[in-house]
Each structure stands twice: as C-alpha cells, then as structure tokens.
Amino acid sequence: GAVVSQHPSRVICKSGTSVKIECRSLDFQATTMFWYRQFPKQSLMLMATSNEGSKATYEQGVEKDKFLINHASLTLSTLTVTSAHPEDSSFYICSATLTSGGEETQYFGPGTRLLVL
Amino acid sequence: RKEVEQDPGPFNVPEGATVAFNCTYSNSASQSFFWYRQDCRKEPKLLMSVYSSGNEDGRFTAQLNRASQYISLLIRDSKLSDSATYLCVARTLSNYQLIWGAGTKLIIKP
Q1: Do B46 and A34 touch (CB under 8 A)?
Q2: Which residues of A touch B97 (CB under 8 A)?
C-alpha cells in the first residue's frame, strides 16, 4: 500500500520557537496533501489543504501566518508552526491523496506529537 | 449540528460478539464514505470504503442508507484487536476534503 511518512514523530520545544514538520509520500506522487490537528479525545480537524506549486487553502480559524505550509514537490509538504505556544501542543497529522483506478484514497502519515513548553 | 455525527461510546463488547455503529451525515451532497480506525495515539488507517450497495470485508460489513443519510459498520465475531476508535468519514465530489466524525470508541473485553 501507499506509504506516507512524517518527521519528526515527536518534538518538544520552548514557547516562541518555530517547528517544522515534514510530510512525504514515499511511493506515489500527491498533488494534494492535507494537514490535520487532533486534540486529545477529539476528532481530526482539517487545518489546510496543501497544493503542489500553489498556495495552501486554510480552513476558517486557522492563521496562515502562524501555520506556514509549503508544498514544493509532488512528494513533500511541510508545515511550520511559527512562534509556537503551549496551546499549539497537539497531534499533527498529514495525509496524501492517491488516485488509482478512478478512486481516491487518503493515506495518513504517522503523525507528529508537538509539545510546547 | 455537526456534519458527521457518531455516538462517542465507549461500546464495551465481549469477545466474539457482534457490534454495530451508525454514523449520520447532514450534507446530502456527500458522495463517498469511509470507515477508518484509529488506535490510541496513532494515525487513522483506512478500514473500508462504503459503497451504495453495501460491502463486506471479512468480519466487517459497511452499509449506506442515502435516504436516511447514515452509514453503518457491523463487526462480527469481534476480536480483542478490534478495540479502537472507529471514525466515519464523508466526502463531497466538489473537493478532496474529508469530513470526519468524532469517532466511536470500541472496547472488546475477554
């Protein structure tokens, strides 16, 4: 099956620093990737849609200047949490869309657990 | 009202029993539906797509009722390893975005 990786898997940082998270589709190309955030015992919340070669589309309430997304190639999207604060601590998950046989399936990365002190 | 609603559970079920979850969606334009499972502190993994005619994959059966706007997941002969949170997902044809339910937690007990 399709594989999506994320790096790092876990990060602890001080308040005010920036953190970059990478999402890679390892064995397929993805023109579209998604970034989600999940707080404990809550559902996945879509943050933004990352489109290769163009600007990301952010969901309502998600600050584009705080959560910078770059989708520079068909296999890599990055999310940078700028000036992180404790309330940004969460589980960040990316997914990539694989289109095959007319069907689209989203495959998820293993997630990045961010803790901001 | 949430676009995709699920009973959060938990459902406590003895091993070997049959268990079923429902999930309702509010957007009648939703065209594709999926069940994902998510283990604690892990990413969601696709369990199965849901087709209009209903579909089965081993012990798992998914059904779609467009008239009442709900989908269901039936698990037969439940195993301890089935313990997880099951997420219902809907998608419209207009974009690639998935709308997620909050999940139903299932606990299989020996």
Answers
A1: no
A2: 34, 46, 49
Instruction: Give the Cβ contact number of residue B91 at 10 Å.
Output: 19
Residue range B47-103, pLDDT digits in tens = 998 988 889 999 999 999 999 999 999 999 999 999 999 999 998 776 667 888 989
Which one of B32, B43, B101 has the shortest CB-CB distance to A110?
A: B43
d(CA A42, CA A113): 15
Amino acid (1-letter code) at residue B96: Y
pLDDT digits (tens, 9 = 90+) for A12-46: 999 999 999 999 999 998 888 999 999 887 888 89
The letter for the amino acid at B80 is L
Cα–Cα distance list, B57 to A45, B2, B16, B47 (Å): 28, 29, 17, 9
Task: Transcribe B40-83 into DSSP letters.
Answer: TTS-EEEEEEE-TT-EEETTEEEEEETTTTEEEEEE-S--GGG-
For residue A32, the chain B residues in CB contact (below 8 A) are 96
> Could you tell me which residues come within 8 angstroms of residue A62 by beta carbon, excluding any fewer than 6 positions away?
A47, A48
